## 1
Amino acid sequence: MEITSSIKIEPKSQIQYSKCILFLSMFYLVFFLSSAILAHKLVYFGNYMTSVSTFVLPFTFILADVIAEVYGYALSRQLIWAALLSEFLFAIIMLIAVSIHSPHALSNSGAYKTVFSSFTRIFIGNVIAMISSIFINIYAITKSKILLKGRFFWLRSLGASIVGEFIFTLICVIIAFAGVTPISDMPQLILTSFLFKVIFNPLAVIPASYLVPYLKKKENIDVYDTETDFNPIKIGSGSNNKKNISARVYAFQAKSK
């Protein structure tokens, strides 16, 4: 009996996919979740108290800048909502896990409750803060890219990140640390966390400045969001003009010829 396969193998040249966005998305999710999990881990630098997530969060904003700069606002928006959904699922799993009774003989069961019992509060604060800040961040990146014709990414990223991180820090600290940290310590915690982010941002934007042109060349793509709907809750291509999508997505091809 002759067995024939119904599977059609497409030539490699006909298969369209992004070579790098998968890895960028995974790195983004790692920094995104890490900043939430480490929020209540407080450390002192001299006399100044801050959260460990202060040193992780800048990578979240910078990576969002990179993705918005190369792939456009719409794809960056989809990634942000996917990350928020992932954090929601993670919070549900942690809530169920810490509520399950464990044998008293297992001494480490209490540690899980200590670490993750407050994650629901952190999740709420993180979601509200992220929605309020990250969309402003990527909006500023994509709009300033058009105005400056794609130049000065490092400067645009620093400016957008500083604004976004200030909004994020203000909202997240108030929600996540209310009732946990004395009210008298809140202004110092907000200011210190924000200033450390500002100082740490250049360390993140330097490699990003080299990554952006590499990705544009590697992916043969450079999106200019001239016809994009910037509604943050809209999931899709984000273009008001469907005919314009291919033109703006493959703008790099036209410029490179």
## 2
Amino acid sequence: MNNNNQDQQSKAEVQTTPLNKLPVPGEDDTEFSAEEAADAFEQNDSANEE
């Protein structure tokens, strides 16, 4: 095999590509508290009562 192929990226280049990075724990956390849900529900409910 020829490892000097110009069409392929090196391992370092692949690992630094944003879409290939491992997720950071907690960064995209979708959990929220019951209080936050209640506040959002109340705000949405009051907006619909016009």
## 3
Amino acid sequence: MNEFGKTTTIKEILNMSTLRPAYAMCVQETLKLVAGIRKLKPWALRFIDSSAKSIEGLMLGSLSSIGMYDECVDTVVYSEKLRNKGELIFRGQYCSLEFKPPLPPKKGAYKLDSIMPELQPFFDNKSLMAEGAKYAQAFYFISIRIGVCVPSGCTEDDINQVAELVGEQLGVDGEVATCEVKKETEYTSLNILSFCAFGTIAAIVLIGSSIDIYSYYTKTVFNHIVIRVLLAFSFVTNFKKFSNTKIIFSKFEMLKWNSVPQYDMVGLEPLKIYAKDFMFQAILNATYSVDSFFVMGGLLNMEDSSSFNLRNISNISKQLIW
């Protein structure tokens, strides 16, 4: 961004306070933050320290720099004036900004290593634009994400307008994904209902487990339907079935292949390199088999019951097909 761009953006941001009164609070708290930074106030430096500085590995496909969320929302600014000393002025607000370059209308599906036809001339020049052209198709579904710490007096709409102005200066589209301020824990009616539901389930499990232990030591057999339902929630019996060593390896395989595809993608460039490795194909193609392993996991749970046997699967499959 050139010097003219910086001056223009700051003027436009300050002029917003005259157009919309609600924005004046954001500007006022931001000016206090700038004054605190100039005086090297610890609370002001925490705003800078918790915000993202740069994106490391951008040319390798790393598209995020999230900053420090906890440090930002835990930053509190109190008044230092004698008249209202110790009074809360504002606190840190964590905002996630998203930026993506303007793209032409999507004409179809693009592979990870394919180049958009509209950007082919830039790619042939072997310049800096060529590096961006390699990943341009990825911005149809992802964006560059940057975490910043701003005063709590700024609303999400305020930050969104600033992101749009900064994006215009950089030649990209900018917007706010989310803004969060640390608040006291509040329990809504839905939270209370959830706690009651989990408490009821926990009570049923405790009662069922107690009856199961009593039945085991006293050799008592309960035939009442209510007692049998409670025994179905027994932690002792269900844990024995879950840890059954006869099919524990199969269960382990189900859990492994349900979790292996859920890996974190660090960068697009390393992923393109890994994709050429033969052994890495197991991870890439495992994403398509997650549903199958969920079905197999369900069948293994049915195998634990006395009324079902996996040997009947072939007969059931034939009946479903024919």
